[in-house]
Amino acid sequence: MSLNPPRINQPTSLSLHDQACAARPGIEAFIRERFRVVHAADIHDFLPTLVSCRNARGELVAAAGFQLAAEASLFLETYLDTPIEHCLADRLTVMPTRDRIVEVGNLATLKPGQVRQLIVTLAAWFDRRQLEWAVLTLTPTLINSFRRLGLELHPLAPARQERLSHGSSRWGHYYDQKPMVVAVSIPVGAACLRCQTVTHPTHATYERPTIAITENAHALPSVR
Q1: How many CB atoms lie within 10 A of CB 186?
Q2: InterPro entries, from UniProt (predicted)?
């Protein structure tokens, strides 16, 4: 018998879902409901690949989405004056290519702490695929979650609602929180999380995460 059984609401399994996946409508419904509860929003804009996180009972407790910049324009590029790779070059004096940039969004959890294990596992997964930059639109609450993990966030631009010109979502008071577009170096962030695992063994394990991604073959974007 384990002396330290997992908390029932903590994530234990994580899966990917593309737009053809039968389970996807349920994941979208979860994200939509969490945005309704937290932001009084009614969203219908979802990134192409969704990630679902379930607890030991099989209950959905967290979800997110991602989009490779090489495959299409990013949702958050709506907030920017230039393509994301040019924005990163201007702000951070780096020269990434679009095939090394991933947008992460649609972050939704039942409880704030549940987003952290999701971040840890996705960081490991992106790092193994040699992606270099994750770009996100974050509210102050989510910014705090990232910073508590020791991740350095690079502000790129404010996310202003008036820049939106597509989609049927109604965003409630989401934009009242003044969300920001930020960038995170995936290799640097991955190294930070590995270091935390060594120095703080009680933290979520990075090298062998307590949750593993179940990869739906149809849900895997190509990373060259």
Answers
A1: 23
A2: Acyl_CoA_acyltransferase (IPR016181), T_hemolysin (IPR022050)
SS3 123: helix
CA angle centred on 129, ends 128 and 132, rounded to 5°: 100
Q: What is the pLDDT of residues 175-213, one digit of tens each?
A: 999 999 999 999 999 888 877 754 444 444 333 444 445
Residue 25 class from Cβ within 10 Å (0-12 exposed, 13-18 middle, 19+ buried)?
exposed
Placement of tokens 């960038």 in the chain:
183
Question: Burial, 165: exposed, middle or buried (Cβ in 10 Å; 0-12, 13-18, 19+)?
Answer: exposed
What does the pLDDT look like over 47-79, one tens digit per residue? 999 999 888 888 899 999 999 999 999 999 999
The one-character DSSP state at 177 is: G
CATH number of 13-219: 3.40.630.30
Nearest to 122 by CA among 8, 20, 11, 14: 14
